[in-house]
Amino acid sequence: MCGIVGVLGKHQAAPILVDGLRRLEYRGYDSAGIATVNNGQLDRRRALGKLVNLNDHLVLHPLAGTSGIGHTRWATHGAATTANAHPHASGRIAVVHNGIIENFRELRVFLASHKIEPQTETDTETVAMLADWHLSQGLSPIEAAKETIARLEGAYALAFLFDGEDDLMIVARKGSPLAVGWGDGEMFVGSDALALASMTNEITYLEEGDLAIITRAGADFFDAGGCAVTRQRRTVAVDATSVDKAGHRHFMSKEIAEQPVVLANTIKFYLDGQKRRELISENLDLAAVDRVVMVACGTASLACFVAKYWFEQIAGLPVEVDIASEFRYREPPISGRTLTIFVSQSGETADTLAALRYCAGKASQVVAVVNVIESSIARESDVVLPIHAGPEIGVASTKAFTCQLAVLAVLALEAAKQRGACSDKVLQKLTSDLWRVPSLVADALGTDAAIQVVSAQLARHDDAIFLGRGAHYPLALEGALKLKEISYIHAEGYAAGELKHGPIALIDEQMPVVVLAPHDAMFEKTVSNMQEVMARGGKIIMISDAEGVSKAGDSTWHRIEMPQFESHWSPIVYSIPMQLLAYHTACEKGTDVDQPRNLAKSVTVE
Ligand code: F6R
Predict the structure, then answer these.
(1) Average pLDDT, stretch 198-225?
(2) At residue 243, what are phi and psi to the nearest 5 degrees?
(3) Which of 352, 377, 397 gets mutated to test ligand 1 (max ligand atoms within 8 A of its CB)?
(4) pLDDT at residue 243, rounded to an integer
(5) Residues catalogued as catalytic
(6) Tell me: the pLDDT tens digits for 34-68?
(7) In angstroms, what is the span from residue 396 Cα to ligand 1's centroid?
(8) Which atom of ligand 1 lies nearest, measured to the CA of 301?
(9) CA of 422 relative to ligand 1 center, distance in Å
(10) How far apart are CA 462 and CA 488, in angstroms?
(11) Measuring from atom 16 of ligand 1, which residue has the nearest CA?
(12) Helix 124-136 vs helix 104-112: angle between axes, to the nearest 10 degrees?
C-alpha cells in the first residue's frame, strides 16, 4: 500500500505530484504529502486524511520547485497523523516509501548511538535518518543512498530527494513495485503506470532489488548486486482520462453498472476463438496436469473458490484454493503436474506475488488472471490471462470479481474439453450459457430498486449472516465481505448446511439472514436451512428466481427476484445482488463507499 510519485521536470512539480497522487489514492488515504527542491532547498507540505486536504493546504502554503516527490499513505507503523505523513525528512534528505522496513528498530539503535533520535513513529523516517548520517560521514548523495539501501531489510519502493540537488533522484525497489517514466527532458517516478498516465506512457519497471539514479537526462539502472543493467523501456496503454465517475455518485456504482458491458467484452475476447487458442489452448496443457492450485487474497480468492466447483464438476480436475498469506509460508508441495493460477485485480498484492514466486520453477506453469496487465504478477507469470474489466477504482472489488469469474469459467470449459470430461453437447450448452451471462447480469441489475428498500432496513442492524450452497457458498462469503468492508456492518458467510453446527446460535429476531437460493439442484436443501432460521425468528432476505420465490418465498422478510438461470455460471449473475446490497446499505449509512476506512485497494505489504 501507499503510493509514491516523483518528478524531475520543467514545470512546477506540486500540481504534477498531486495529480499523480490522485491516481494513487486507491493505495491509501490516511495522509498525503509532497517535498520539492526549491532554490536548492528541500521543503515539504503534508496533511492528514485524504488528498483533498493536502490540496487545500497547498493553496494556503504553496510549494515551488520543479523537482519533487509525493506520497499517499496507508498507515503501517505509527498512527495516521501529520507528523507520521511522508515525505520524511532528516537533514539534507527527504524520502517517500511504500513497504515495511523490518529492521528499523535495530537501525534506530545504531542511530541513537550517534545521538540521532526519531521525530516520528514510522519505520520510514529511519531511512532518511540513516541516509543523512551517511552524508554527514562525507559520502555523496548517491553513495549515501546506496549504503542506506544496502542496510535495509523488508519491503520497499523508495524515492530519495536531496537538499542542494535539483537534478537528482534515487529510487529503489524490493518487494514493492516502482516504475520510472520517460519524458522529453523530464523524468518521472510512480508506484504504477497509472500514476504517470497524464505525464508519460513510456515506462521502465524496476526489477526486484534494482536501484536507479535519475536525472532529467535519463536513468541509470543497477541490479541487486550493484551492476549496471539495461531495463526495457516500453510504451504502455494506460488511459489518463479513465478515472471518472461518468455521472455516478460513486465509482463503485459506476463499476457495478458497467458489468454487462465489460463481461460481454471479456467473454467475447475468450470465446471468439483466436484469443482462446493463442492464450489458453496453445499455452496450457490441461490434460497433463493432475491438480490445480489457485492462490489469491480477499475477493479474488473467493472467485477462485467459486471456480473450484466449476473445475471439479465440469472438468473433473481437483482444485485447491488457498489464501496467499497462508500459502506462501506453508511450503506446500507443488509438483511438475500442478498448474498454479494466481488471481489478482491489481496484480501487485504482496502475498499473492510471494506465493507466485514460491511456485515459479516448481509448478508445470504459473498462470496469472489479472486486471492490470503491466503489474508485477503479470510480468512474472508464464501465461497471462487479462480479465479486461477496465480500471477499478472503488476499493470494494465488483466488476473485477465477475470478470475474474468469467475468465475462470472459460478456463474450466477448456479444461473439460482438453480432458474429455464432458460430451460436446454439454460443452456447447455450457458455452452458450456463458454467452448469456452479460444479458442476465443486466437483468439482475434490475433488482436495484427492490434492493434499495431492503438496504434501508438492513442498515439499521449491527450484524448479518449470508448463506449459500455449492458454488453459491463462496458467494455468500463474498456478500458478507462486501457488506462489512463498505457498510461496517458485521457480517459472516456460511455454507447453509454448516449453520446448525454452531452459527445457528446467533439467530434471533434481530438477525438478518441473506439466503442465496437459486432454483437449482440444491434448492430444497438450502430452503430447509432457511426454514431452520425462520423457525428461530431470523429475518430472511431470500434471493432466488421466480420459481424459487413462488415455492418458498412466503413469510420471508424480503424477497429479491432474480432472472431464471439454472446453470453452473449462476454465481456470476448472483454476484450483482451481493454488490447492490452492500452498496445501498453503505449509502444508507453514509459511509465512504469508494474509500472505506482502514482499507486500500492495492495491498503491497504483507
Ligand atoms: C474486497 C477486495 C479485496 C481484494 C484483495 C486482493 O472487495 O477488493 O479483498 O480482492 O485485496 O486484491 P487483488 O485482487 O488486487 O490481488
Answers:
(1) 95
(2) -85, 80
(3) 397
(4) 64
(5) 2, 601
(6) 999 999 999 999 999 999 999 999 999 999 999 99
(7) 7
(8) 10
(9) 33
(10) 8
(11) 344
(12) 40
Show the ligand 1 pocket: residues with CB < 6 angstroms: 297-300, 344-346, 349, 352, 396-397, 481, 485, 603
User: 31 near 81, Cβ under 8 Å?
Assistant: yes
What is the distance between the alpha carbons of residues 534 and 556, in angstroms, rounded to a whole number? 8
User: CB neighbours (10 Å) of residue 497?
Assistant: 15
Cα distance between residue 429 and residue 422, in whole Å: 11
Strand-pairing partners, residue 369, are 343, 385
Sorted by sequence, the CB contacts under 8 Å of residue 341 that are 6+ apart come out as 292, 293, 294, 295, 304, 367, 368, 369, 408, 411
With cell 500540481, the residue in question is 15
The amino acid at 318: P
Q: Residue 586: how many CA atoms within 13 Å on its side-chain side? A: 28
Q: Cα(first)–Cα(last) distance of the chain, in Å?
A: 9
Pocket perturbation via mutation, ligand 1, pick of 252, 323, 346 by most ligand atoms within 8 A of CB: 346
What length does the chain have?
A: 606
In the block, cell 449509512 appears at: 589
For residue 422, which amino acid is it?
A: C
- Sheet containing strand 512-516, edge to edge, reads 490-495, 463-468, 512-516, 539-545, 558-562
Residue for grid cell 528541500: 42
Query: Measuring CA to CA, how many Å separate 342 from each of 78, 109, 351, 459?
Result: 32, 40, 11, 35
- Predicted TM-score of the model (pTM): 0.87
CA–CA distance, 374 with 384 (Å, rounded to integer)? 10
Asked, as a colleague might, if the bond just before 571 is cis with ω within 30 of 0, I would say no
Compute the distance from residue 344 Cα to the ligand 1 centre, in Å: 7
Cell digits for 484?
Answer: 462489512
| Tens-place pLDDT, residues 244-278 | 788 899 999 999 999 999 999 999 999 987 888 88
Q: How many angstroms does the Cα of residue 272 sit away from the middle of ligand 1? A: 29
pLDDT tops 90 at residue 76: no
Contact call for residues 356 and 328 (beta carbons, < 8 A): no
- Locate 184 and state its grid cell: 522529453
Nearest residue (CA) to ligand 1, atom 5: 298
Residue owning grid cell 503534508: 46
CA of 594 to the centre of ligand 1 (A): 13
Which atom of ligand 1 lies closest to the CA of 349? 16
Structure confidence at residue 402 (pLDDT)? 98
